[in-house]
Amino acid sequence: MHGNVEHCQYVNCIHRNGVTISGNHNSVRGGTVFAPALAATGNGVAISINEMRGTSFLFEGFKIIADGDPSTTSRGVIDCGGNSVSMSADTILGGCMTFRDIDMSAPNARIPIKIVNRGSTATGKCVDIKINCPDSPVTRSSNGIIQSLSGTQFDRVRFEVDLPNAGAPAGTTIDAAKVCGMTEGGTVAAVTTATTFQDVPITFNRRFPKAPSMRLNGNLSAAGVNIFYTPISITTNGATLRIYTTGGSMTAGVAVNLMWEAILNE
């Protein structure tokens, strides 16, 4: 597909050697995309977006199977300008790049999605991502990269990449005025000490591109009177959960479960 193509779509197709899509207002819907495994033909890049006139594209409701690792050539399994000029000064029209209801099997790929602006100043550029990556490797170098090296940044990015078995933390790069759709939560156990406050550090597994907002609560009734809890020192990588009291010292030795949720929804 060339950069002068608009309003075309692939529907319920089986793509044996990945998909290359260009132009504007084009889509891939349904079916299965097998990424090429050889370095000469893509090395795990399933979706390659090139020669963009605008940023209005739709990818929805299909499965990606990729055995290679495109990060070896600075690309993602879904790739737009990872190591080339795809979104440039010639990309003069805005719009939303939508990736939704996509299941990605890419056990060796260290970057699931990479979108790089290399010169577009079009207004109204946004990215909407909802991808499930059930077998993402622990050794991934990034949860995703949405980046503006030149031109203007994206207006808004919704980033919902599910990495249920990803293991070790990795960062997420998003250059956008507003970022939404990112949440993470968990429970951490602590045992109180006979002090007026106690800090419990946590590390986010999926790392945020900006410091998120947080909610925190816990089962603290047995630790003393006037017990409160609040998140402090929130960063992109983690936070400190503080238990404190205004009614004297806490009772020592009380097991406490702190339930927390981090949210980035601008």
From TrEMBL:
Pfam families tied to this protein: Gp49_Pectate_lyase_like
Domain of life: Bacteria
InterPro entries linked: Gp49_pectate_lyase-like
Domain Gp49 pectin lyase-like: 1-75
Official protein name in the record: Gp49 pectin lyase-like domain-containing protein
Species this chain originates from: Pseudomonas putida (Arthrobacter siderocapsulatus)
